[in-house]
């Protein structure tokens, strides 16, 4: 970025500075630590100067927002044009209660809905399944049939909101239910906006709500890509997620490397299935974590954007600019929240949210202070949302695009993360791709190594967590935590029974049979799932048919 | 401590008693002696299968599928799964069960995980004691899944009737590079993940290696399987049974068991003798002192041996 | 007879968050224990059957989904039913303080909430074995 002569002069001055001012300062008082490390454990230098970014070509590597390689943002005006979507992940217990919460959030100025499902729903079991015992409605809303979905979005016009659904293994079924509700509201499918997470690889890696083995799971995903590119063109068909990889304990570079490796696997699968890369790639979206180390996180978001652009252009020969743009949702890091002194979490979340905004996120969920204790209360959710509104309206950080660009530290760090991430991708390629690397347990092992190291650093006080291993106080047990009514399971069971009584059971059996045949064959299963859903076949019934044909995934664990 | 009650319960099929007895024989040779003296008459009936092979070959998944196939025939199956113990901490993570957890509740299956606890050779020092408990508990088949060290797990030949060597395409090492003496122990070769590219090559390589091996009364079969998809397991089960038929018909069954028992008895005698010799010569430290003498060329190793043995007769 | 402490680290229910369980498994191993890890989605019945066959000294249950009030006592209950009384059951995860007493009454010896150093848990196990 600088001419040689100038660099030489800077280098000269730096040397002098080191000999004089720095040496004197160090002699007077040594630094507090021998080594300073980032949140992810990589070494951070005392000072960054033009030398550290000397080999970065501004036009090629940094460039302008809305222009390849999109380092500075996928869009030219960024938040000057439109503030990010403040999307709060919520949903608990029953469809009725969640519906009330969504209406409240929309009234409070939330501009997108985000649905959390309970674990039985995420794993394709109805609320009356034996394995669902104790779990119904606990971490999200229980959806057993189209009936629940109708209640969930009652009074919410689906052409006016964009809806994000955190659903993976049974994503095709929940998407089909959403489409069916829209049709009942008279909303045509080309008006539907939203996202399904639909990222099965990270379920195997980190989140654990998988159902089927790798192969049929990848087929379901490409089926959805294909179906939506024709029928629901504005829908984001996948949200390739680093969030949970980071929550499982990865470093920032691993988060980028493993997430983009998953992305590569999805693109390859779709291309192999005969789809043209530019028909589905523009609908791919990403989901990252925003952790504690502010600058490292900003660099991470930027690195991910540049690396993905290069991968799409160079590896997959994408032609459409939109295929190269990495758009992402961010959630602040749940794993950094402490049960001790929970109000401190408000401050952590604020800074993590700031990192996401400085990194150019398209949408953001801010965690609530009490989430290390239980599901958040309404008050806590409001504070979390206000945090975003303060950043957007009061801090001024939105006034200019990519404000930290050109910082010697940020640009050097961005490059470092990009390079490290690329090393992981190369390693995964050598192992035969992300799916194979997961089967071998490689990715999981790398992450659990990092997680273990992080924990040991906390225990040895090399890493300080305020309120946990330093500045502790005696505290009273927190009160007023949100509790899920244990009767929810019974209510859900009652609803399932009612649905099963009222529906046309013959039609259900027939549609399930057709779905089974489709699963055994090679055609797109989406229309068959949609048909079954419309007859009120339950989620468990539909996934049951698929389990029968596809089998179930077996976890790979290396410790 | 008397183990009669536990032994009675174990013989009556109580899993908890079986587990407690394994704990006793796994940890203390003295306790093991007391127990094995009592149960000896009930042992010797199980078909003992060793499953071995390099790490990443899918031994656990294959074990799971073999167990299920046998259980479906109404057989009772015991499993001993061995994982390495950390030489630094003495602890271990025993994770082979993960693949078999849906068998945890099956009344005809008993699964036990063991750490090697510093013992080399792919087993733990007391694997054979645990085996005897399961044998006495009337499991028809006992499957031992060894540590995946690949190069040194030959100890399994000392206790198993049938050894399945699991191979997998594309692990990087050619069959040829696997140490001599390891491949020879396989009674059956299973090429797992045989839906992967390179499976045919792996099978060919095994066959070529077998062609080179002389003195074979029986050529070990090479079976292709895809354990995760439960493919080829039927063939593998058939080969396992054929191998037992072969052993019995050829007289090798008795020969193998005799050899193994002989090894075990000799080992026990040696161990006892060693203890006796050492107790007659002022304990372990004497050896250390004598070693220094050898090192300084004041004595040679045979002189020292003879001195120790003389102490015994005096 | 001196023998290594054997611990079953189990994830009951459908919760897929195993970062904590894995970190603890490794910490216990590094403290010289034999750790049996059985992966995700274990039913209380599977956990108890495994504990019996492996003859473990300790069951460590890890759960973040909020289903602890159902699943933890169920494990304790099954142990009791099978007459297993020489086994220490501990739990951890996102568990509100106000639930802890109830879980202890149900037979869970101790509950470790987020932020507990692994050292503390190791010491607790060593000092509270029932054998």
Characterise the protein shown here:
The complex is a heterotrimer of chains A (about 550), B (about 325) and C (about 130). By secondary structure, chain A is an alpha/beta fold. Chain A is built from 22 helices and nine strands. Chain A has a domain at about 60-90 and about 195-460: Alpha-Beta Barrel (TIM Barrel). In chain A, strands 5-4-3-2-1-9-8-7-6 form a nine-stranded parallel beta sheet. The longest helix of chain A is centred in the first third of the chain and has 25 residues, at about 5-30. Chain A is globular, with a radius of gyration of 24 Å. The mean pLDDT of chain A is about 95. Chain B folds into three domains: about 1-40, no CATH class; about 45-250, P-loop containing nucleotide triphosphate hydrolases (Rossmann fold), CATH 3.40.50; about 265-315, no CATH class. Chain B contains ten helices and eight strands. Chain C has one domain: 3-Layer(aba) Sandwich (Rossmann fold). Chain C contains five helices and five strands; from the N terminus they run E-H-E-H-E-H-E-H-E-H. A five-stranded parallel beta sheet of chain C has the order 2-1-3-4-5, sandwiched between helices. Chains in contact: A-B, A-C, B-C. Chains A and B meet through loops of A and loops of B.
């Amino acid at each position: 970025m600088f001419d040689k002569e100038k660099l030489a002069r800077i280098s000269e001055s730096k040397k002098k500075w080191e000999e004089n001012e720095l040496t004197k300062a160090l002699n007077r008082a040594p630094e507090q630590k021998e080594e300073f490390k980032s949140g992810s454990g990589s070494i951070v230098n005392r000072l960054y100067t033009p030398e550290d970014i000397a080999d970065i070509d501004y036009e090629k590597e940094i460039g302008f927002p809305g222009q390849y390689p999109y380092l500075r943002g996928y869009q030219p005006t960024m938040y000057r044009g439109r503030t990010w979507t403040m999307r709060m992940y919520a949903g608990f217990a029953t469809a009725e209660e969640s519906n009330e919460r969504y209406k409240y959030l929309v009234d409070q100025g939330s501009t997108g809905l985000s649905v959390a499902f309970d674990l039985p729903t995420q794993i394709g079991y109805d609320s009356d399944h034996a394995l669902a015992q104790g779990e119904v409605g606990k971490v999200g809303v229980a959806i057993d049939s189209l009936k629940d979905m109708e209640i969930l979005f009652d009074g919410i016009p689906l052409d006016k909101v964009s809806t994000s659904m955190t659903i993976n293994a049974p994503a095709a079924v929940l998407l089909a239910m959403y489409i069916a509700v829209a049709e009942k509201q008279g909303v045509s499918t080309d008006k539907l906006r939203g996202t399904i997470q639909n990222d099965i690889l990270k379920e195997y890696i980190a989140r654990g709500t998988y159902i089927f083995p790798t192969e049929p799971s990848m087929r379901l995903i490409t089926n959805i890509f294909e179906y939506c590119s024709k029928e629901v063109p504005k829908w984001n068909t996948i949200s390739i997620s680093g969030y949970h990889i980071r929550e499982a304990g990865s470093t920032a570079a691993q988060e980028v490397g493993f997430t983009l490796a998953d992305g590569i696997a999805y693109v390859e699968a779709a291309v192999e299935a005969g789809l043209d890369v530019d028909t589905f790639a523009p609908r791919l979206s990403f989901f990252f974590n925003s952790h504690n180390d502010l600058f490292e996180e900003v660099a991470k978001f930027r690195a991910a954007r540049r690396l993905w652009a290069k991968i799409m252009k160079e590896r997959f020969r994408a032609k459409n600019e939109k295929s190269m743009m990495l758009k992402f949702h961010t959630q602040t890091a749940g794993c950094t929240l402490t049960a001790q002194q929970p109000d401190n979490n408000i401050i952590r979340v604020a800074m993590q949210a700031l990192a996401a905004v400085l990194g150019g996120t398209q949408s953001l969920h801010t965690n609530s202070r009490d989430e290390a204790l239980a599901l958040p209360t309404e008050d806590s959710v409001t504070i979390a949302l206000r945090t975003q509104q303060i950043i957007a309206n009061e801090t001024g950080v939105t006034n200019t695009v990519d404000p930290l660009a050109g910082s010697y530290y940020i640009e050097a760090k961005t490059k470092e993360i990009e390079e490290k991430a690329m090393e992981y991708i190369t390693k995964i390629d050598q192992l035969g791709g992300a799916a194979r690397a997961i089967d071998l347990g490689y990715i999981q092992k790398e992450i659990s190594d990092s997680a273990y190291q992080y924990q040991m650093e906390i225990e040895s006080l090399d890493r300080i967590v305020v309120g946990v291993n330093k500045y502790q106080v005696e505290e009273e047990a927190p009160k007023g935590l949100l509790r899920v009514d244990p009767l929810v399971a019974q209510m859900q069971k009652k609803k399932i029974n009612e649905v099963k009584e009222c529906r046309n059971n013959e039609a259900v059996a027939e549609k399930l049979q057709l779905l089974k045949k489709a699963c055994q064959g090679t055609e797109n299963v989406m229309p068959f799932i949609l048909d079954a859903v419309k007859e009120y076949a339950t989620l468990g019934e539909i996934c049951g048919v698929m389990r029968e044909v596809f089998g179930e995934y077996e976890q790979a664990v290396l410790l | 401590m008397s183990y009669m009650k536990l032994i009675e319960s174990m013989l009556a099929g109580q899993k908890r008693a079986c587990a407690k007895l394994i704990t006793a024989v796994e940890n203390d040779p003295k306790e093991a002696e007391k127990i094995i003296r009592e149960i000896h008459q009930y042992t010797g009936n199980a078909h003992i299968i060793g499953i071995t092979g390099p790490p990443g070959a899918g031994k656990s998944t294959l074990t799971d599928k073999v167990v299920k196939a046998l259980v479906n025939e109404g057989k009772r199956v015991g499993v001993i799964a061995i994982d390495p113990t950390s030489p630094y901490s003495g602890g271990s993570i025993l994770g082979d069960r993960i693949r078999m957890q849906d068998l945890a509740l099956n009344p005809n299956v008993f699964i036990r995980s063991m750490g090697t606890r510093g013992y080399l050779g792919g087993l733990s020092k007391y694997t054979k004691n645990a085996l005897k408990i399961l044998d006495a508990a009337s499991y028809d088949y006992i499957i031992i899944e060894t540590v995946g060290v690949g190069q040194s797990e030959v100890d399994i030949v000392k206790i198993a009737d049938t050894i399945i060597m699991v191979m997998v395409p594309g692990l990087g090492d050619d069959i040829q590079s696997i140490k001599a003496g390891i491949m020879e122990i396989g009674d059956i070769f299973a090429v797992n993940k045989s839906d992967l590219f390179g499976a045919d090559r792996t099978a060919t390589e095994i066959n070529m290696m077998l062609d080179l091996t002389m003195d074979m009364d029986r050529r070990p079969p090479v079976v292709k399987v895809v354990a995760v998809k439960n493919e080829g397991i039927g063939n593998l089960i058939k080969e396992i049974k054929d191998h037992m038929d072969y052993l019995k018909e050829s007289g090798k069954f008795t020969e193998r068991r005799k050899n193994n028992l002989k090894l075990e008895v000799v080992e026990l005698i040696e161990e006892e003798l060693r203890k006796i010799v050492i107790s007659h010569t002022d304990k372990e430290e004497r050896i250390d002192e004598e070693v220094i003498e050898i090192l300084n060329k004041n004595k040679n190793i045979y002189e020292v041996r003879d001195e120790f043995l003389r102490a015994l007769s005096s | 007879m001196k023998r290594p402490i054997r611990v079953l680290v189990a994830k009951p229910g459908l919760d897929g968050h195993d970062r904590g369980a894995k970190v603890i498994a490794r910490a216990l191993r590094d403290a010289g224990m034999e750790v049996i890890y059985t992966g995700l989605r274990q039913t209380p019945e599977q956990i108890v059957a495994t504990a019996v066959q492996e003859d473990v000294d300790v069951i460590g249950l890890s759960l973040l989904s909020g289903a602890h009030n159902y699943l933890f006592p169920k494990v304790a209950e099954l142990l009791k039913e099978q007459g297993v009384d020489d086994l220490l059951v501990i739990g951890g995860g996102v568990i509100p303080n106000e639930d802890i007493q109830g879980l202890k009454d149900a037979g869970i010896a101790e509950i470790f909430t987020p932020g507990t150093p692994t050292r503390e848990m190791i010491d607790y196990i060593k000092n509270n074995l029932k054998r």
